[in-house]
Specification:
metal-binding; alpha/beta; 26 helices; Herpes Virus-1; 21 strands; five-stranded mixed sheet; Hect, E3 ligase catalytic domain fold; ligase activity; disordered N terminus; EPHD; ubiquitin-protein transferase activity
Length: 748
Amino acid sequence: EELRMSKNNNVDIQSPFCVLCGRTDDCPEKYGEKRTYVEYNLTVHYYCLLMSSGIWQRGEEDEGVDGFLITDIRKEVNRAAKLKCNICKKKGASIGCVDPKCKRSYHFPCGIQRECIFQFMEDFRSYCWEHKPVQKLPDKESRGTSQCTICLDLVEQLPMYTVLKSPCCKNAWFHRECLQYQALSAGIFFFRCTVCNNKDKFQKEMLRMGIHIPEKDASWELEENAYQDLLQCYQHCDIKRCLCKKGRDYNEPDSKWEIKRCQCCGSRGTHLACSSMKSWEQNWECVECRSIFAKSGNYSKQKKRSLATSEKTDGTTCLLEEPCPKCPRQSPGSQRNFLLQSPKIMCQNNLSPCSHLELPASNRVTMSLSPLMSNRNWSLRKKHLRKQRRDVSNILKELKLQVNAKATRLNINAENIWNSALKGFRQRNFSPTNTIEIKFTNCKNRSKTDTSAASKHHFFQLLMLHLQNSSLFEGSSAKNLSLDFQAVKENLYFEAGKMIAVSLVHGGPSPGFFSKTLFNCLVYGPENVKPALEDVADVDVAQTIKMIKYANSLSSLQSTIHNSYEFLAAAGCLRPITALCDKNMLVNDILIHHVIKRIISPLESFRQGLKTLGVLEKMQMHPDAFSSIFCHKPERLSAETICDLFTIHSSSDVNKVEGADFWMGYLQDVESGESVVTLEDILLFVTGSFSIPPIGFDPEPTIKFLHIRYPVGNRLLNSLELPITKTYEQFKNKMEFTIRNTLRVERE
């Protein structure tokens, strides 16, 4: 405890009692700091002094006791000595009720015990138990129990002293004690509603109801190296046969002995060489995580091969084993072939679409449409998804009109993406309507501030990947919100929702990992959603639900309920079971509690974050369209997709037909695996992005055929300049040489 002294150099000692309340208690949270001044033979609780009715701060801050002069304190003690406390019946009651007709006096600790209200603002008023302010609740508002959004214990929804309701959120209730501890920890700059993040309205109401909000910085900001533990990364090779002669803990960055952590759990690692990985950018999963995925059915039962084309979060392919150097890399889109349509071609002279172009016979690949027609439902569904994503793109472009030219710079450490992003989003000058500039602080070769859309997309891509694998969500592929007490306390669910909204409007990728249940809760409200068994991520809870659901007799059902009594009681799902059919209602109750009611506070906070820039409102207006980007991964790139993405501009002196034919033929070769680059590599070369963002690219990608030696990708303009060649082979060789080497240099 820090004991302050007067301007004279006094030695602090512990005095037996406070001169105003007469108590020896030393509890700063309840009575304020207890201070002793030896020279004046004076000990006083800070709150007792603040709330005393007959004293004011007549001195400067460094005079007496924070501006309360010693002579004034003596006079107040003498005045209070004549007044009897209406609660403990002892003299020395220095605090009186401010109601004009009320004559009650009391000590500060007695007032706390009797549930009086002390307002730590303006004139520091005090109200007795009869005249204290009370929060008014609408008559129509339902009574019952809710979760305190700080400690998450149950709280009664009643206007009582120990319970407080948020003035800005309908479903936010708190224990008074929890709020007071939160206020003392957060201070005036960070104390706000834990659900909607409102500060002004929330603080005003809490001060009125007697919550003391100190004028200081948050406790976590004052603690030195408070976040040091978060910077520690797992550095150990767990492969059965480690090849490193310097040991399993040896880690040499930018070499084959660099340790790569499991992309799923992060708690296992491997040297690149020990797992035959050529690049640090390749994804790696530990044995435990692979076995979990295998059991959940995420890994298809195929013959083992060196090239794995399993889809990852960023749309790229992942090499699980060392690839054969002679085997060309397959594009993810090569599993399905499409009959290429003509690209959009605009001539500079008249800007009119040119006629349909046909591939030369030498370069054309014969394809059959029968595989597509054999699955009409799949084709229609894919077509429907494409239309929905076009609708989303138009909606997001409309929302982007809010973004102005004023720039906000975010300093981002790619290796610590979450903390640096969180710090950037919480900085005072950050506004979602400002243009975002990204500065990667841990990249030596990047420019000081990379304002390109490519850098911004890369940042949001890393951020969405982190969110998907964070403790805020649970589940395998289709995820729901989890219940993370620390995240609730630090308001991280609000920040996550805000980050997703900002990503969508500012040209970043979509999440793509939401479950239908989570999406429906956000759009239609949790009270209108019926969860399913697949939404339960906890293995033990899922097993309990299955045993109840598939019980084939009343006795087995009752036995299961008996064995799960504690769990059901804690969930509030105990109900009389008189027939086997009662199990259906019980299963429904458990699902609603575990999937929805349990996370109602994180869900409300997450919804408030998604309201940023009006994203949630648009989701509620166009639920079908937005579900295509929230609940589905981006469509795999295909030659057709890339072809439609680019508009070809050509001057009059260029044979645009032949140039376009070479381009289309090359895309088809890449898609069919007859190239050393992938469609993702081409998109990355031009735009700096592996995938097409939901809002689309700005500016729209274009192609120009010029008399140049090698292709040029201009990421600032999303423009691809292609060389004019005599033969297709020359065109293909130049494309592969340039793209492969450019990306290799960037990775290095």
